[in-house]
Amino acid sequence: MTYELYYWDGIQGRGEFVRLALEEAGADYIDITRQSDRGRGTGAMLAIMQSSSEAHIPFAPPFLKDGDLIIPHVANILLYLGPKLRLAPDDEGMRYVVNGLQLTITDFVAEVHDTHHPIATSLYYEDQKEEAKARSASFIKERIPKFLGYFERVRQQNPTSSQYIVGDVLTYVDLSLFQIIEGLVYAFPKAMSRYRSKYPLLAALHDSVEERPNIARYLKSDRRLPFNTQGVFRHYPELDRDVS
Known about the structure:
Blueprint: E1 3-6, H1 15-25, E2 29-31, H2 42-49, E3 63-66, E4 69-72, H3 74-85, H4 92-116, H5 129-156, H6 172-187, H7 195-198, H8 200-210, H9 213-220
Parallel strand pairs: 1-2
Antiparallel strand pairs: 1-3, 3-4
Helix pairs in contact: 1-3, 1-6, 1-9, 3-4, 4-5, 4-6, 6-8
């Protein structure tokens, strides 16, 4: 059965974490809002979210449809898809370890978002620029090292493999960490200019994911939208700074 992925068109955003898993697995899926035929497009997504008859309606995208089942939230979607796409450990207990790491990534992504929208999502960035500068300075100085340092340590202490974050096979968390690094390098190139020397294991993980055949093809395709100032990771030069 074909998976249906629902997320805002025109941006990578949080939907990209799910998209990378589907692409790596070579799964059959449709990016619904990027299709305008046969009742698809953004209207189809909003119709589900605003439905007065659909059971278990999602609060916000991304969400995934697998037949009649609707699964919301990135970490929840990946917990569901992981075993099906062979991107999760066989051991049930370890699947919750992987889910915990993905939930930590969820927290990290929320903090990334708040660097450019520290007051309210209903306000434009220009309406909260000064607050965004203060929030970004703290994020760069304190939060990037805290999160990346944690994931570097997790990979270093993986007793099974020196290649992956958990266990001895690729999981969706490896793919998500690739996306985190890609996004941070785009949004904060000065702050991330020395990340390879500070977090060499994460840098190696990023490079190994980038070289995987399905991911490499995806990154070169028009399905991989470029980063822009509408998504979660946004580059505003005034928010970036060198931390050397």
